[in-house]
Amino acid sequence: MRTPKAIHVALLLAGAWTPARAQPRHVPDVTTLAAGHGQLVAGTPIGTILSRDGHAWRWACHGGVGYEPPYQPPYAVSARGTLFAASHDGLAISRDGGCDFQMAGGPLDKMYVDHVVVDPRGRVWAVTSTNGVENGLYVSRDDGRHFARTTLRSRTVWFKSILVRGREVLVSAYDAIGKGTNRLYRSTDDGTTFRELAVELPAGARLIFLLVGGQGARAGGPVLATGFVDERPVLLRADATLRQWRVVLSAQELSGVAIARDATYAIVDGALLRATDAQHFTRTQAPVHPRCVVAQDDALWLCADLRTDQAIAARRRTKRWEVLGKGGLRALTGPACETGGSVGRVCGPLWPGLRRQLGL
After folding, report:
1. 225-238 pLDDT tens trace
2. Model pTM score
């Protein structure tokens, strides 16, 4: 979405924005973002970019975090600032702001972790979808140091996404064999026991529908999921029973949805949309061309479009936007950390070549 001229001028006068300059060559796109508790983590095809203040940004290569391109892992951030990256080789964890990542052991060792979330009580939840083994939902109550299996497990189902709302835990999944039926599981006792719900999706719906989270998600509120109907990306809303789902948004491109405290936000065909009832969306202003959206720490966070914006992200608190990572990819520094760490050792030799490739 293009910034209206008046807002663009106001941002220039406030020093919050700089006019567009020639962009680096082969600019990648931001595809995932996790924010909160003093940490920002963005996933791109060239690797991960990290920040502790939204102004200084470091780059980390795929191997430094623990995954292979072109996969872009979902990230999560705990209240202690611990970073989690869901990888096809396990769950990568950093406790020093992304200088060093180590893979979680125990039941997540070598598992394909599809999604990881941290709930408001600090518990870390992860789901797996690994070939030929028993998959399920796992939980940690000590900031990811130890994970335990829950009662939700199967050898024929792949588990895809998690939504925690108070004592309610929802998990989406689909069959690993056969026709790949969508499945939805619900717990009302903090993930102790689960039951499967009989889901009725719109005609033409196909795999995979992913549950939508955000700091505004609450027990009794609307439950949303993204998916595809007739090969078109859609936003789905469940009825009160969580069984029947209907389309509330359809687009050429649906690149992000988040439930904030004031409204639900979606990135549709490059524009930021807002709905206070989670179903009637209207276009709203944004200081960047948004590519993804996250609601965390009483803030709304947007990924900037690195191809057009001179920024990496934007943050809104108390109705005021702040542009972060001014200069876009030019704001990046190499992977080295003052404390050392495996990321610098693994990624350091690759940084000069990447800078040349991007024209930085």
Report:
1. 999 999 899 999 99
2. 0.89
